[in-house]
Design goal:
Elements: H1 2-16, H2 21-28, H3 32-38, H4 46-87, H5 93-107, E1 118-121, H6 124-136, E2 145-152, H7 159-170, E3 181-183, E4 200-205, H8 209-225
Parallel strand pairs: 2-3
Antiparallel strand pairs: 1-4, 2-4
Helix pairs in contact: 1-2, 2-3, 5-6, 5-8
Length: 226
């Protein structure tokens, strides 16, 4: 009760100085409605009323400017993206080969302990690209792909949905998918877009040790060419 009395007295004092009800509520950490009740008997001067009115108009004006600025930024970004997309034309065979090779260099399995071509990522577009690269540039047959989904065990109830997502994306039948791997790491926060999480996809190619060695050589050649 004592605490409420102190807040009440502060609210009355602040209101008498011409502060807005919302501002007082924020300063005292109480609701707007309770400040309105407390200060309803406080009579503001005409000058204080005018100041509050001008402040409200200014705030509205600033909000309109912020919305307009945000919209302009969104449109500007869309324009930049559209222009940038148009700058990328169809890739020639050599361009496709080098682009995929650079991507494999960054994200593919290259360790001396590896015995097969492999690639792992969570980006669906990147996965589609690398599979097309395997097929078109390296002539990998579709039936030679071995895929495995990996995701946090908190999504175990979504296993079938996650597998279906990657099957549809890659066009590779479920029969070529290995048993999913569940990560047991603890997430520090809960993500609101739970339904948009599909983990990562591990892509391997059967009987590709020779092709892997060749890819390592291409990567070395690419690094020298630069």
């Amino acid at each position: 009760m004592k605490r409420k009395q102190i807040e009440y007295e502060k609210a009355i004092a602040l209101r008498k100085t011409g502060k807005s009800i919302k501002k007082i509520a924020k300063l005292l950490g109480v609701s707007v409605s309770i400040v309105a009740v407390w200060s309803k008997e406080v009579k503001l001067t005409e000058k204080q009323k005018e100041n509050l009115k001008r402040r409200k108009v200014r705030v509205r004006h600033l909000r309109r400017l912020a919305r307009r600025s945000h919209l302009e930024k969104v449109l500007r970004v869309k324009k930049i993206l559209k222009e940038a997309i148009a700058e990328i034309k169809s890739l020639s065979e050599q361009e496709l080969f080098l682009t995929g090779l650079a991507l494999y260099w960054a994200e593919g399995f290259k360790s001396v302990k590896e015995g097969r071509l492999g690639f792992c990522n969570s980006d669906p577009k990147m996965i589609k690209f690398i599979i097309k690269w395997f097929e078109k540039a390296l002539k990998v047959k579709r039936e030679d792909f071995i895929l495995r989904t990996e995701f946090n065990e908190t999504h175990k109830d979504r296993t079938e949905k996650i597998k279906s997502f990657w099957v549809k994306l890659t066009g590779i039948p479920l029969g070529q998918f290995e048993k999913p791997f569940y990560h047991r790491s603890t997430w520090l926060r809960d993500y609101s877009n739970r339904g948009d999480y599909y983990g990562i996809l591990r892509v391997r190619v059967r009987r590709s040790s020779e092709l892997l060695n060749k890819t390592r050589g291409w990567i070395s050649g690419l690094s020298r060419a630069i």
